[in-house]
Write a structure and sequence with these properties.
Layout lengths: L1 H28 L2 H27 L14 H29 L8 H28 L2 H30 L4 H28 L6 H14 L5 E10 L2 E10 L5 H18 L3 E9 L8 E2 L2
Parallel strand pairs: 2-3
Antiparallel strand pairs: 1-2, 1-4
Helix pairs in contact: 1-2, 1-4, 2-3, 2-5, 2-6, 3-5, 3-6, 4-5, 5-6, 7-8
Main location: membrane
GO biological process, one term: intracellular zinc ion homeostasis
GO cellular component, one term: plasma membrane
């Protein structure tokens, strides 16, 4: 968790530096497209701060009020990120509309474009770090922040390419068209973040590949039992919850059934990190012959 907090703190610092560079680029050029890019970076600062707060909350140990811990706080952070992304996109559409009604003169200085390009390079490097580490740490807040930064990187590259085209053709309204396209890209990013975070809040099951590994380890380690059935999984941030029924012979001693459960739990925790396992032991009369056969 310390690593996640360091990354989240780094995101706040990086997003402030990038915002400053993009705002300088906008002030030097007067470009609405660069303004949209700067506005997205303002959202980056807010989302990075939201991710940092969520990670601090999720790091709290389980207590009487929250016996399963606070890991889901990260999903609330991701929802906030998604909402802020949508608000930023709507703000850009508003600026495009008014600028289209009252055309403005651009000053496409190389200093302004250079400041924006530098901000894009910094964002790209940090985005790569966040996505790699966020997936490794299974942190929805860091992954959401990284995905948002990825859209920012794409937007910045498109804006710079488009402005170069506007300079070459002399068509200044291309600046506004680019800003609108950036807003569309931001909206799509917001939809993706909201979809994933809501899935987590709704106790979404683990991915199919992870589920297959879980089933395989149960089948391998439940030697002495008859079958396992009613397997259920859910994710809560970095935590994974697994529960199932284990059918054992009726005459098996409790100590032996308990030893099988311990063996299964140890194997599953070596396969999936930050795992909580709940096993309900049943006698053979409860067998359904439709679950996980024991190898």
């Amino acid at each position: 968790m310390e690593r996640s907090l360091r990354l989240a703190t780094g995101s706040v610092a990086v997003s402030i530096v990038v915002l400053a560079l993009k705002y300088i680029a906008y002030r030097l050029t007067g470009s609405i497209a660069l303004y949209s890019d700067a506005l997205e970076s303002l959202v980056n600062v807010s989302t990075a701060a939201a991710a940092l707060i969520a990670l601090k909350v999720s790091a709290r140990p389980a207590d009487a009020a929250h016996p399963y811990g606070y890991a889901k706080a990260e999903y609330f952070s991701a929802v906030i990120v998604g909402v802020l992304i949508v608000v930023a996109a709507l703000s850009i559409f508003r600026e495009v509309y008014f600028a289209w009604q009252e055309p403005h003169v651009l000053d496409l200085s190389l200093d302004g474009l250079g400041a924006n390009a530098l901000a894009g390079v910094i964002n790209a490097a940090w985005c790569w770090v966040l996505l790699r580490e966020g997936r490794s740490l299974r942190s929805p807040a860091l992954v959401a922040d990284g995905k948002h930064l990825l859209t920012d990187v794409v937007s910045s590259a498109a804006v710079l390419a488009g402005i170069a085209l506007a300079m070459a053709t002399g068509y200044e309204k291309a600046d506004l068209v680019l800003a609108a396209l950036v807003a569309v890209n931001i909206l799509w990013s917001g939809y993706g973040v909201l979809k994933e975070s809501i899935g987590g809040l709704m106790d979404q099951a683990v991915p199919g590949e992870t589920l297959a590994r879980i089933r395989s380890r149960i089948a391998e380690e439940a030697v002495g039992a008859i079958e396992a059935h009613d397997l259920r999984t859910r994710q809560a941030g970095r935590l994974t919850f697994v529960d199932f029924h284990l059918v054992v012979p009726g005459e098996m001693p409790v100590s032996q059934a308990h030893a099988i459960c311990d063996r299964i739990e140890e194997a599953l925790r070596s396969e999936v990190h930050d795992l909580f396992v709940n096993i309900h032991v049943e006698p053979e009369a409860k067998a359904k012959h439709a679950g996980i056969p024991v190898l």
